[in-house]
Amino acid sequence: MTEPASATHPTRVEFSSHELTAVVEAEGARIASLRLRATDPAASAAPDPGAGRELLLVTPWSGTTDGAWAMPVSSHEWHRRYPGGWHVLLPRSGDPVTIDGVEQPFHGEAAWRHWRLEAVENGCDATVDLRTVPLRLTRRIRLDGDTLSVTQEVTSFGAAAVDFGWVEHPAFDGALFDGATLALGEEAPRAFVEPHATAFADLDAPVGACTVEAPAIARRLTLAWDAAVFPRLQLWQERRGSTGFPWWGSVDAIGIEPASQPFDFGGDRLGALTVAPGETLSSTLSLTVRRMPAA
Residues 46-91: pLDDT tens digits? Predict the structure, then answer.
């Protein structure tokens, strides 16, 4: 289920602001890279430990070329070739499931498809029509100074209402979060797990924002979203703690993932959201990356 690239529809779009550089790839409309721009040492009296650093996870096998062979179970194949970065999981996240006689692959069709990309000023637009459900997805990714914004539109082109699930899946380089804390709403800041450990949490997130204080790169990361669409936050921490397939102790990742329903959402629906025939559900997320105040 791929769409060929052309001169007008590239497979990769790169764009920059003064603070950040982003790369979007056609497969999954994945944000493959979000890098802090290098700074001029002469322009600052203090060294910048974050200058030039990649913020998103890049797995050791990212960028490798696969042959025709694929693992028969989609969850295994996803993990075998997972490159890191920021995916959108839609119309379903989690394990493969069959709803209304249609099998949904692990983490949803949208993350597996090749989207049509278009370079625009300060960003990239991406579109795809899903085949497992009658949904047209439009994704607009922009950089404005120190902020990356992602606006997703989900439009039904079918004759009946469509239920679906939606998770935004940004995975960060875990090494950047050594000594970091995450603040969610009124909760006390929580520490991330240490290297060589793993953890997963499915959290209530009624405020729609969280902040990470990351001293390793002297940055404060603020992720904001619409809590009416994403009332949950899934926190995935794989800090070289899994020594078997698929990570082999070589992946250090922190996933901070706004979600439309709990991770163990079950039943006979794809998810907790619904879009009526001809209607569109739209939502915007933003990630702002700023220097932490000097101690």
Answer: 789 999 999 999 999 999 888 889 999 999 999 999 999 999 999 9
From the CB of residue 276, how many other CB atoms can be counted at a distance below 10 Å? 12
Q: Where in 105-191 does DSSP place strands (E)?
A: 116-120, 123-129, 135-144, 147-156, 162-164, 167-173, 181-184, 190-191
Contact present, 253 and 134 (Cβ < 8 Å) = no
Percent of the chain with pLDDT over 70: 95
Q: What is the pTM of this model?
A: 0.94
Report, as ranges of residue numbers, the positions in the chain whose pLDDT lies below 70. Answer: 1-7, 40-45, 295
**CA–CA gap between residue 97 and residue 84 (Å, rounded):** 23
Alpha-carbon span 224 to 286, nearest angstrom: 5
Tell me, what DSSP letter sits at residue 43?
Answer: G
Apex 126 CA angle, 158 and 9, nearest 5: 115
Q: Which residues contact 159 (CB under 8 A, 6 or more apart)?
A: 277
